[in-house]
Specification:
- The protein is of the alpha+beta class and 262 residues long.
- The chain has ten helices and six strands, in the order H-H-H-H-H-H-E-E-H-E-E-H-E-E-H-H.
- A four-stranded antiparallel beta sheet has the order 3-4-6-5. A two-stranded antiparallel ribbon has the order 1-2.
- A hairpin with a 2-residue loop joins strand 3 and strand 4.
- The longest helix has 34 residues.
- The protein starts with a helix and ends with a helix.
- The N terminus is likely disordered.
- Pfam families: RRF (PF01765).
Length: 262
């Protein structure tokens, strides 16, 4: 028994050393190759997530399927010479804001004069908001008037824009005045608005993909001068930002759908 304990004391230091190697952070090697040490990252907050290698059983692996992957949180100031993550974040957020603005202005159960304001009218002199070339007013709860006296030559273009606005409107012409009957709120109209909301969300996601692609292409230009592990880490951060933005869009779509269907 005494001999066994003595042997364990001899083996113990080597055992702990080998264990510390196995649990060394996976990102440590990549950070060294870029001139940024792991301690630097911890002190500056460049990466708040430490990924550690664990040995798991098949049962544990099966149990972990479907769980979210470890998130990264890069300090933007440490990689600003490679790419400005703050600018990417602003561009992605602007896509969400544009979608929310579209929902508020164009997708409402009750059509109001304000919902026609930003309908884009294409003329020979360019594109203009409807409220810039016509005076919009509410004649009655069932009728909106658009007075085109100041720009009568744009009347036909304004009628076309109103019809193609996706708001289920059928304008009528009375001289230089456009009469826009407000449609009744039917189940079909509600479902049509929900369909438009989904289409607008998909367009916003396409715009988001363009922002993500542009950021990735910019990052690729630095591959010759930046360590591969650092590039992959930034790519993961950008992908994570895009996924978060898509989740936010889906959240706004779900709320709008609930509002429209009642």
């Amino acid at each position: 028994m005494a001999l066994g304990l003595r042997c364990f004391r001899w083996v113990q230091p080597g055992f702990y050393n080998s264990l510390s190697v196995l649990t060394r952070p996976v990102l440590e090697v990549g950070m060294r190759s870029t001139g940024i040490t792991w301690n630097d990252c911890q002190q500056s907050g460049a990466c708040s997530t430490v990924m550690i290698r664990h040995f798991a059983t098949k049962k544990a692996k099966a149990k972990g399927k479907g769980h979210p992957q470890t998130r990264v949180n890069i300090n933007a100031s440490l990689v600003e010479d490679i790419i400005c993550l703050e600018e990417v974040d602003v561009e992605m957020k602007s896509v969400v804001e544009a979608l929310k603005d579209n929902f508020n202005k164009n997708l409402n159960i009750r059509t109001s004069p304000g919902s026609l304001d930003h309908i884009t009218v294409t003329t020979g002199d360019g594109k203009f908001a409807l409220n810039h070339i016509g005076q919009i007013s509410l004649k009655s709860p069932q009728l909106i008037l658009v007075n085109m006296t100041n720009f009568p030559e744009c009347t036909a273009a304004a009628i076309k824009a109103i019809r193609e606005s996706g708001m289920n409107l059928n304008p009528e012409v009375d001289g230089t005045v456009i009469r826009v009957p407000i449609p009744k709120v039917t189940r079909e109209h509600r479902e049509m608005l929900v369909k438009l909301a989904k289409q607008n969300t998909n367009k916003a996601k396409d715009n988001l993909r363009k922002v993500r692609t542009n950021a990735m292409n910019k990052l690729k230009k630095s591959k010759d001068s930046v360590a591969e592990d650092t590039i992959k880490l930034i790519e993961k951060q950008i992908g994570q930002m895009a996924d978060d933005t898509v989740a936010e869009m889906d959240k706004h779509l779900a709320l709008k759908t609930k509002e429209l269907l009642g």
